[in-house]
Amino acid sequence: MIADCTAPADPANVTNVCAEPIRLSDAEREQAVVMLREHLLAGRLTLEEFTDRVGAALQARFDRDLASVRQDLPAVPVPGGAGHRSVRLTAALFGHVARRGPLRLRRWTVAASAFGDLDLDLRDATTDRGQVVIAVVAVLGNIDVYVPEGVNVQVSGLAAFGHRRDWGRGTDRPDAPTVHVQALGFAGTIDVWRVPHDMHDSSYGEIMRRLHPRPGRPA
């Protein structure tokens, strides 16, 4: 292997040496993931940032590969500040409501829609829990929940005269938080979208077109 060498700014500086990269063990990668989870629960990482960095940590081969994973994070997790607003209840009644941004998920969150449309976007959300429950109730309304890919999502419940569906690639990571979506619908629609990382800034229409393509509809 070729050493990662950087020429010294001062040729007279004989203390400069080539730093050989050190291979990581499985235990060291797992330790990095545990560190990231602590930062997530402290509110320092969003759900999407957490899943993105966990993927990088699990693929890291050398110690220097973890530099981007630990970037802008303290060496030892400390309690985060109250920078994100907590979300307990989001509702749409005879209209359209989009709830997004730096939300703070607690143990329970309720999303309800009656004769309206509700978009609950968790791409920039944080949580201090390993398990989060979102109770989704749609009565003659529509609810779409957007969760970053890499977060464990479990969807359950009942929809009468409507539908309950989930889209995207599912994951089963013991190190990742789990979002339990408990759905109840009557003549309404409930859809859960697992949003790929490269679609962080995409519109809801773009997400739907990729994850649920329809014949004749432009991609």
Task: Outline the structure in words.
The chain is elongated. The longest helix is centred in the first third of the chain and has 16 residues. The chain is of the alpha/beta class and 219 residues long. About 5% of the residues have low confidence. The chain folds into two domains: 81 residues, no CATH class; 127 residues, no CATH class. Strands 1, 3, 5, 6, 8 and 10 form a six-stranded parallel sheet that branches. A five-stranded parallel sheet has the order 2-4-7-11-9. α1 runs antiparallel to α2. Helices cover 19% and strands 36% of the residues.
Q: What is the secondary structure topology, with strand pairs?
A:
Layout: H1 26-41, H2 47-59, H3 67-70, E1 85-93, E2 96-99, E3 103-114, E4 117-121, E5 126-127, E6 131-139, E7 142-148, E8 152-160, E9 163-167, E10 178-186, E11 189-195, H4 204-211
Helix pairs in contact: 1-2
Q: Averaging pLDDT over every residue, what do you get?
A: 84
Number of strands: 11
* Total number of distinct structural domains: 2
- Tell me, briefly, the overall form: elongated
* Rg, alpha carbons: 21 Å
Q: Report strand %.
A: 35-45%
- Please count the helical segments: 4
Distance from first to last alpha carbon: 44 Å
Q: How are helices and strands ordered from N to C?
A: HHHEEEEEEEEEEEH
Structural class computed from helices and strand pairing: alpha/beta
- Low-confidence segments: 6-17
